[in-house]
What we know:
Elements: H1 22-33, E1 43-47, E2 53-57, E3 66-71, E4 74-77, H2 100-103, H3 121-133, H4 143-147, H5 149-152, H6 159-167, H7 177-184, H8 194-210, E5 212-218, E6 221-228, H9 230-234, E7 236-237, E8 243-249, E9 252-257, E10 266-269, H10 278-288, H11 296-299
Parallel strand pairs: 7-10
Antiparallel strand pairs: 1-2, 2-10, 3-9, 4-6, 5-6, 8-9
Amino acid sequence: MSEKNVESPQNQPNQMTISVSTQELAKLIDIHLGDLRPQEPAWRVADSTISGRGLFATRDIFAGEELFREHTLLVGPTAHRSTNLRNCTICYCIIPGCVDRDTLCPAGCGLPVCTKCRSSARHRLECKLFRKWRPLNPHTIEPRSLRILSVVRCFFLDETQRKLLYAMQANADQYYIKEVQRAAECFEKFPQEQDMLDYFYRTICVFNTNAFESRTQIEGYEVLVRALFPLAGILNHQCTPNAAHHFVDGETIVVCATEHIPAGTEITMTYAKLLWSTLARKIFLGITKHFMCHCMRCQDPTV
């Protein structure tokens, strides 16, 4: 499929419109957390003076205290060419085999999947969809179609999950439509419907605005996946944050306080590396997150 067949959504603003109120977002977050929602959360979702929505302490929080843990809404391979592409797209294990053909689904969907996960309900859905689109080369692992898998999984969200997806901040960037175009080139019958392409584009914008690169250990190997965590994604950036995160596995994030957080204070994390210079942080945030930080550390001329 050529690039001209996938049209960019017209007149997109830098930040896409969000029609869900902060109160509605908080309710959607509670539903998303399910059993992981603390009985009495130490935080609440509210409007932020830093940017959009944020999380605020409802009581004094101690340093080291776990604030929440959350399962991902959407997740998929990073598919960087520098990474091992022969990971199962379901359980992320390394699939044994000398050539791509040994690791790919025998049904012809073009996705690498281990023998244990081939019969899983999750893979059967994705396999059916990819086969419907007809991969041009189902015997070779294609990084472009692998990378779009995390976005394709938006088709399998229920109505409440889709509403949560649309409630998340999405920075529009015409470069993001290239992800759809590159994926389209891997299939003979990639979707042409504009409403479907718009849904893809919105999901990609949400992903690239909010997603984490999750690191996990599978059978002694480090595996990288792109994961979307709606609650963790609400946390705003500060160059001197009061919270940090780690991953239990590729699909679960844990956020903890790194210092005492007084009641009413916004809970923040850093989107950049703490030890980077002010110039390096500003460049990184401007290019990848589309904003310039004006925190006290960034305004300190001695740093």
